[in-house]
Amino acid sequence: MKSLYVTGYRPHELGIFNDKHPGVAIIKTAIENQLRTLVEDGLEWVVISGQQGVETWAAQVVLHLKEDYPALKYSIITPFLEQEKNWNEHKQETYMHIVNQADFVTAVTKRPYEAPWQFIEKDKFIIANTDAALLVYDEENEGSPKYVHRLIQKYKEQHEEYELLIINAYDLQTVAEEMQRGDEW
Questions:
Q1: What would the pLDDT profile of 10-66 be if each residue is shown by its tens digit?
Q2: Nearest-10 crossing angle of helices 22-40, 169-181
Q3: Per-position DSSP letters for 15-82, written without gaps between them
Q4: Quick check: helix, strand or coil at residue 162?
């Protein structure tokens, strides 16, 4: 596996309304644990679309991992131009930081937002151009990740080699307990 699409929940879907929420560290640690294993197995690219929440946190994890794995790269493939235009100033600053650090940035549709189809096309494009996906998703709390989960399942019907990795609520609970005990490395 050379490339991995990382996506999942938006912060508000998890009841997270600021960067200091303890859930952020738990999710970032779970992503980091998974990425470290994958990098050791040959992962070269992490692909996100730059959405707030799991994707932004994944980019921050990759930036941290680059200290140990300088060859690791990440790209941001947005659904449309200026996706951050209506975000508040803090969210725009966070987004611009990850954009400026990215190894590659582009938009699937080379125009501003028009309609929800742009999100679907972005997911289809990224899935078709990666080897696997890491989804922070729990079927008991579907939220927006259910849509990309369905697209991946449909894609896997024609492309059995495509791998789907999921970090679910149980995995996050395990990471939280390890962090409480001080087991994280």
A1: 999 999 999 999 999 999 999 999 999 999 999 999 999 999 999 999 999 999 999
A2: 100
A3: T--STT-HHHHHHHHHHHHHHHHHHHTT--EEEE---TTHHHHHHHHHHHHTTT-TT-EEEEEESSTT
A4: coil
Please work out, in degrees rounded to the nearest 5, the angle formed at the alpha carbon of residue 162 by the alpha carbons of 158 and 164.
Answer: 120
Pairing of strands 132-136, 163-167: parallel
Q: Which two tokens stand for residue 66?
A: 């680059």
Count of alpha carbons within 13 angstroms of residue 81, beta-carbon side: 4
What is the three-class DSSP state of 164?
A: strand
Domain 17-138+161-179 has CATH 3.40.50.450: yes
pTM of the complete model: 0.95
Say how far apart CA 59 and CA 120 lie, in whole Å: 21
Please list, in sequence order, all residues whose beta carbon lies within 8 angstroms of the beta carbon of residue 125, skipping any fewer than 6 positions away: 77, 108
